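ping. complex inputs:
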Amino acid sequence: MIFKTLTAAAAMLALTAPVLVAGGADDDTLVINGDIEITTKAAAAPHLDGHLDEVMSGWHFRDDDTQAMEMDDFDNPGMIFVDVATDTWNTAEGSEGKSCADCHNEPESMAGVRAVYPRWNEEAGEVRTLQMQMNACRTERMGAEAWKYDSGDAINMEALLASVSRGTPVNVAIDGPAAETWEKGKEIYYTRYGLLELSCANCHEQNYGNYIRADHLSQGQINAFPTYRLKNAKLNGMHSRFKGCIRDTRAETFNPGSPEFVALELYVASRGNGLDVEGPSVRN
Amino acid sequence: MADGVKPRVKVPKSASAGEAITIKTLISHPMESGQRKDSSGNTIPRSIINRFTCEFNGESVIDVTMEPAISTNPYFEFEATVPEAGEFKFTWYDDDGSVYEDSKKIEIG
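pong. complex structure:
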């Protein structure tokens, strides 16, 4: 599967020598703090029939050192931002003088929430991402300013909510009223963008496990977001990552928070149904 | 004081006498090198933590001078021999004169 396009040529060259699985996923097990066991490989959801057999967290595609950083909260630099968000959680803001804690008590009361977003919001009549829901809380209930999409405050809070959901399997609903948005996201996933004419699927479905220049291509799962990236030493949001990918195809990208990226987030999240939430994760 | 500075320390709660234990420390800090420029071309002034020390019952365990090339959120991991019960004291010195402190007690047992 992984070497679909390369095996023919490689097998000719390496008749006797075994083909090295360079860049492929490993078989390590992710346990955080020696306590939270994370499901990082799962059978693919039925809607991926004919596309993927097994879904894998991007954690499997990283070096042992990078993997180890995520296995302990002290070593995980993403947890710094979770600490910052915990302070924000307890700080009253806006005209109502309320903090997140006034309604939701401890952040732990939000366990499992990250796993079901993006989800349909009946009242608003739209699919909402976690950040959109946070902003609805801020503007409607707290009388505070909305956070800019994928800005520091918003990503930190998303990391806090992800951290209390670690170990919960992603389970976003794609039927019912969310179906339309999901279809739109699927269309974007399989559309070739940019001068390089690449779709998400070209790399993350057809070539995961292969090298892209010096890096390993993962399946592009988003169960582990927000992600602390060693390359920029900060937390990165899903939409910013989407934007980076599309930019790399040399296309004009959509913006974080745009309806296109909301749809894409729902679709990509659904590709990871069954994988556990593991954010904030550490990647290169 | 730089924004969002928060020291974190991980020390075992107890050790046997004479045991070498591993200590991990991390402080969130932007560690602005003084080499970068902002969008209008002005140099962003240097703002780093320039010294980190650890003491055990008043005795120096480690004393580190830091330079601008050190990354954001500096992390130190080192070993210390614990001869008796006592307290580790950690101190970070900021360029702007701020001093951040943390301490951890350890028992023999």
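The first helix of chain A runs from residue 7 to 13.
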